[in-house]
Design a protein that fits this description.
By secondary structure, the chain is of the alpha/beta class. The protein has eleven helices and eleven strands. Strands 7-6-8-9-10-11 form a six-stranded parallel sheet, sandwiched between helices.
Length: 308
């Protein structure tokens, strides 16, 4: 008689598409589309010790109450914005994320947005396409990247990857975070607003959770200023989107590059008439290579846990 495989909970419907690839190691279970998740957990939650998740999966006290045997949560993303982190810590759950797996991709995308915005790549493209090069001559000059002051809010895996990529461009680098990091070569500002006033480009890479909700508010946005660029690659709720839109329209903020929004997907109508903004559909960390690495890493974490 074949041994019963351990059950691994997945709340995201799309993760069921991967279940057959790991059917020899564990059984992926969970509510299907149209099911009431709480009702499903009430009936099936006991005995599940591991969960395979993405950061926006809802995991609050209500769900955890119905998972009394849960011990390990493997999150297949960097953010955990759908989860009650404090409640998970109170219950002594072991949680791992994959922020160190796709940090290079996210940092590459952040740098690409900075280059596109500061050097006017899309405007220059249109200059050629609209025949303005012939009709009007040279396109307007753009800003240099060399000697640009790049401030990084949050110096975790992704923030450090951004900093390393910035060095060859001969930019100045400084950062802010809630705690100092001994051994880091780049200077740390005591406050985020001081960093925002100093920098030409503010990269937002802080950890996304309730403590950072609305962290980039009107004061920070205005501190970056009419010649500055703000780039957000963490989660949309970290930035006050209404304040950002108003500042772009009024010219109190020079440019913005956004890969994340609140809510997602964002609507085109919300950005109608907003100038000097580069919008991306939450794709910074998603490449064919990185997604496979993230999946493999998270499955390895589950297999190691279930083997013990």
């Amino acid at each position: 008689m074949a041994a019963t495989l351990p059950r691994v909970l997945a709340l995201s419907e799309w993760m069921w598409q991967l279940r057959d690839r790991w059917k020899d190691h564990f059984d992926v279970v969970g509510p299907r589309k149209g099911d009431d998740p709480l009702a499903w957990l009430e009936e099936n939650g006991r005995g599940i010790t591991a969960m395979w998740a993405v950061g926006h999966d809802p995991l609050s006290a209500a769900e955890l109450d119905l998972l009394p045997d849960l011990k390990r949560v493997v999150v297949m993303s960097a953010g955990m914005d759908g989860m009650d982190i404090e409640e998970m810590a109170r219950r002594n759950l072991v949680v791992s994320t994959t922020s160190e797996i796709n940090d290079d991709e996210v940092a590459d995308h952040a740098m690409a947005m900075m280059l596109a915005l500061r050097r006017g790549l899309f405007e220059n493209h249109q200059w050629v396409r609209e025949n303005r090069w012939i009709d009007e001559g040279r396109a307007p000059m753009t800003r240099s990247i060399a000697n640009t002051r790049v401030g990084i809010a949050g110096l975790g895996w992704i923030g450090q990857a951004i900093a390393r990529r910035t060095v060859p461009f001969k930019s100045e680098i400084a950062w802010w975070g809630p705690r100092d990091k001994p051994g880091i070569a780049w200077p740390r500002y005591d406050s985020l607003v001081e960093l925002a006033r100093w920098c030409d480009v503010l990269m937002v890479a802080v950890r996304a959770h309730d403590d950072t909700r609305g962290l980039i508010d009107r004061e920070i946005i205005e501190a970056v200023g009419p010649d500055g660029t703000l780039i957000n690659i963490t989660r949309g709720f970290v930035v006050d989107e209404d304040a950002l839109i108003a500042a772009l329209k009024d010219g109190r903020l020079g440019q913005a590059g956004l890969d994340v929004f609140e809510p997602e997907p964002t609507s085109a109508a919300r950005w109608e008439g907003v100038p000097n903004v580069l919008l991306q559909p939450h794709v910074a960390g998603a490449t064919t290579d990185s997604i496979q690495r993230v999946i493999n890493h998270s499955v390895d974490q589950l297999r190691k846990y279930l083997a013990n």
